[in-house]
């Protein structure tokens, strides 16, 4: 491999990492600042103020499928690089607007309207970025797709960690009241850096070879030729939405709203689960290189049947150690799904409609459960006396995932093969 080729692959991986990190930075930032966003932009002071915050948070999920459709079409028709370059550049615009948006007290009802529109624009860009960046990277880097998949998901966690670290600093008593706004301003600057790096990458050879096969309407091709793959991609998004946003958003709110911890304390304990997720995603991704992504996700589904109950049991013990262990276990569970996820989706679709099929299917699932899970769990805990309702909710979705995997996967022709698998076949 020439030095220039290696440098190019490094740029491709770097641009994908930045795109994923920025997306989760933005999403996590809104999650940890839920109470502040509700206070600043909804002027809500009653018991349901967190629900208003989650309502704004969920707005990004409404437009993720539209973003997957738009950028998926561009990615399958005109190239992955074109779609990803613009999705990353546009992500910084609504993030910057939030950083300077006047409060409800200053401009009234216009404030929450603009906030929701900004979240919808973030979701539009994220719909084309998350899966598209992985597709682009894995079409270039085929040696260890499971490991690369895990690294890309870990980069999302890095974005979340940076968001929580900055949120931790800006919520200290000695910081000015407006300090939280600098967190969003920083996110807009990162998008500019990612845009510059991505412009200096090249299109994947796999896409260029299949370009003549791309139809005018990739979505129609997905529906007629890869319907089972589409439903399985949607199922993957459903379970990931439930688990990821329980860990990355709801668990911090759970500790502050229902366990009585301050926001800084909640973020501190929350970090143990997030760091665990970051460290283990490459390991679970690497495992999928050895046992196949399907078997890895089957293992993850089985873990989801009992880990949630153990975690919430430990939360109820309510000691520092028990909360840390509970968060770590949640991190393990989410990593078991996240690590092999991109590799798994890559195998479901041919190159000619992979961007559309994987992105749209996954984001539809995420739109259904990602934005609603924190909102629904908050509502259930407001009306139910048992805190184990959250654990039951996660386990039910784990069971549904195992059923979907067992039903759809045998009907699918796998399209993506790593170099290791091709060598074995030879």
Topology record:
Blueprint: H1 3-32, H2 34-41, H3 49-62, H4 64-77, H5 80-100, H6 104-107, H7 110-140, H8 145-170, H9 180-199, H10 205-210, H11 218-225, H12 227-258, H13 263-291, H14 293-303, H15 307-317, H16 320-346, H17 354-369, H18 372-383, H19 389-408, H20 419-425
Strand segment tally = 0
The arrangement of helices and strands along the chain is: HHHHHHHHHHHHHHHHHHHH
CATH architecture title:
Up-down Bundle
Q: Based on helices, strands and strand pairing, what is the structural class?
A: mainly alpha
Mean pLDDT, rounded to whole units? Answer: 84
- Spans of at least 5 consecutive residues whose pLDDT stays below 50 are 421-426
How would the global form be characterised? Answer: globular
Overall radius of gyration: 21 Å
Outline the biggest β-sheet. Answer: none
How many H/I helices?
20
What is the class in the CATH system?
Mainly Alpha
């Amino acid at each position: 491999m020439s030095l220039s080729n290696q440098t190019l692959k490094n740029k491709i991986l770097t641009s994908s990492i930045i795109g994923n990190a920025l997306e989760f930075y933005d999403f996590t930032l809104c999650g940890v600042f839920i109470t502040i966003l509700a206070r600043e932009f909804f002027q809500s002071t009653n018991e349901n103020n967190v629900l208003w915050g989650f309502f704004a948070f969920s707005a990004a999920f409404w437009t993720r499928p539209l973003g997957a459709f738009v950028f998926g079409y561009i990615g399958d028709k005109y190239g992955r690089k074109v779609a990803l370059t613009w999705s990353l550049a546009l992500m910084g615009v609504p993030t910057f607007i939030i950083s300077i948006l006047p409060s409800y007290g200053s401009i009234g009802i216009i404030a929450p309207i603009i906030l929701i529109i900004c979240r919808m624009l973030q979701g539009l860009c994220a719909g084309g970025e998350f899966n598209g960046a992985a597709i682009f990277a894995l079409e270039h880097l085929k040696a260890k797709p499971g490991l690369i998949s895990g690294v890309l998901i870990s980069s999302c966690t890095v974005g979340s960690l940076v968001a929580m670290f900055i949120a931790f600093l800006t919520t200290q008593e000695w910081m000015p009241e407006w300090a939280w706004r600098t967190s969003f301003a920083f996110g807009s600057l990162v998008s500019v850096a990612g845009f510059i790096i991505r412009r200096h990458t090249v299109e994947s050879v796999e896409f260029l070879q299949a370009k003549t096969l791309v139809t005018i309407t990739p979505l129609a091709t997905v529906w007629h030729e890869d319907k089972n793959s589409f439903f399985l991609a949607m199922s993957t998004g459903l379970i990931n939405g439930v688990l990821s946003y329980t860990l990355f958003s709801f668990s911090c709110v759970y500790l502050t709203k229902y366990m009585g911890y301050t926001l800084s304390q909640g973020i501190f304990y929350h970090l143990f689960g997030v760091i665990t997720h970051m460290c283990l995603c490459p390991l679970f991704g690497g495992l999928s290189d050895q046992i196949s992504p399907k078997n890895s996700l089957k293992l993850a589904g089985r873990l989801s049947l009992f880990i949630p109950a153990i975690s919430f049991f430990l939360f109820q013990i309510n000691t520092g150690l028990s909360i840390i262990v509970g968060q770590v276990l949640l991190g393990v569970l989410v990593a078991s799904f996240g690590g092999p996820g991109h590799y798994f989706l890559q195998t479901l679709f041919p190159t000619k409609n992979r961007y559309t099929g994987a992105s749209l299917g996954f984001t539809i699932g995420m739109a259904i459960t990602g934005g609603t899970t924190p909102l629904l769990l908050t509502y259930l805990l407001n009306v139910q006396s048992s805190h184990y309702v959250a654990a039951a909710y996660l386990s039910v979705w784990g069971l549904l995932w195992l059923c979907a995997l067992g039903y759809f996967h045998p009907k699918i022709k796998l399209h993506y093969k790593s170099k290791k698998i091709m060598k074995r076949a030879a």
